[in-house]
Amino acid sequence: MSTNNTPAKRKKLPACDYCKTRRVLCHPQLDGSCPRCLEKGVNCTTTPVIRRKRRTKAQLAESSGGAGSSSISPAEAPLPSAGNTVALTLPPSLELPAAIVEKLIGSFCSPYITHPLMSPSEIKTLLADLSSLQPQERVLLHCLMAFSSLLSMSPFVIGTEEVSAEQLLIFSTSSPLKAPIIPDLRQIGFQREPVFLQLWAEALWLANQEGIATNPTNVNAASCWVLGHIAQVVLGKGASPFNSAFVCHVRCLAEEGNLDDLNTVRYHWHMMGDVLGALTTGKSIQYTPNDEPLLVCHTPEPLEKLIRDSTTKSFTAGEAFRSIHGFAHHIIRLARETSENLTSVFARRQPLDESFLIKHFASLDLFHSFLIVELDQIARIVQQSHHNPLHAYYLRLCAHGFVASWGSLVLTIFEALRDRSLQFAFNATLGGSSNGFVTSLADDRNHERLQMHLRHARRLASTAAVEMYKALREVPSITPLLQHSELVKWTRFLMDEDNVVDINHEQHLQALECFRDAIQVAGFYCADRTGIVESVNEYLASSMKRISTRNDYSTGFEALYSFTAVSSINSLVPLA
Q1: What is the pTM of this model?
Q2: Domain 14-46 has CATH 4.10.240
Q3: pLDDT, tens digit, for every residue of 16-40?
Q4: Where is the Zn(2)-C6 fungal-type domain (predicted)?
Q5: Alpha-carbon distance values, 243 to 195, 240, 333 (Å)
């Protein structure tokens, strides 16, 4: 019997952690540290590497359920219509109870929340059978849930922290900013932020997976509008890639004849909001002048004729709603002219056109007259619409939207001229030439003319601030308060005392209080990190202290005057 005396082959030891981290050659030892670790004086440790066994194609097919089966991506996984939870296996993932999903989507079925492309009945079909949703419909479902999470008061969204009865009452109160006690809801905005951000991330992830921005359909257009609206509400950005995609989608659908059932009044209203959102943030306006006749199919009338018709006859509720077409058309026209000649990136690099400003201010004054007539018509109809609360609600909402749209336009013009004035002063300090008007005018003449137009814009903005705060007091619900960035802009405008020369002191303080209350209430949907509420409280306290000091001074002066007068009279009376 022969024996094999060949020694067994020695297995190579793995490199230690220190050498492996530094990617150098290691000489591991059976007992003790390697030479490098001994030299450096570090503890020589070796972490074992677990090598996974290679699997054959047959084993992979067997583990996945057969050679013909394939894994389902998260975007394709159906959402169950029954059960305790709806699993959203998306990065980042969040598990929502089925009841919460239905409640979030159901909020869009309320008659008080409108969507430009989908009616409440169409949205209800999304909840009919969640398991049979198409991928594009599933994207819209997630978009609606993300936006609804900004408005939901469910404990799943805002946490289990108790909400007081006063805080809950403000949601069901008509004219909430006229309530005797207006609660501070800003903490709720911070509480809902984690859930909202996760839902928003999931909606964006699904939207990118399905390519909704490049495939024009009604459902994809609705999803793009919701995502763009979220960016506008939360980030204060008036134009996002999804806004641009939405405009392209509806344009393609209209050219193909697939927007026949579009509610043109509602869509014109949303078009006006999108245009003003782009204007106030200095972005390009996506809608062209040809989009209105294509999408709305409305023949615009001159502003003078609209004013004449509004002043010579009494509108019905239907005529008041149809007047949105004329209002939106002229607001969009003025906004486009403002962007092209004053606020856009290209316009800011050009010399200021004074002839445009003169004509533009004349158009603004004329449009303001139309606004006043429209508000009077709506106020009269509201007083006669007690039998139809839904009509009264929409009319009051319409009045607030008219004033807010006008205010956004005027405030943007004022800010643009103010920035021009500051740039003029900066250039003058450096000794350079101004970038104001035509170069043939002297610099002092340029500055004088610029200040004249700035005073005109400030006067318009001051008037609009008073109209805004009065409209906020009459707002029928807290839903229109979603434009947080605009509320902050108006508050900062009023806190600059140079801007309120045309407002009496009482109106100034009342307007500041109203905008502060609106920001506190609007904080329920979005975390407010501006600190503007505390600044307003300090400003109001300082103003009240000055008033109190002035009253004490006046009282003391009157007392001194009375004492001096009595002393003078007594000095004239002869002693007995």
Answers
A1: 0.76
A2: yes
A3: 888 887 778 888 887 788 888 888 7
A4: 15-46
A5: 24, 5, 19
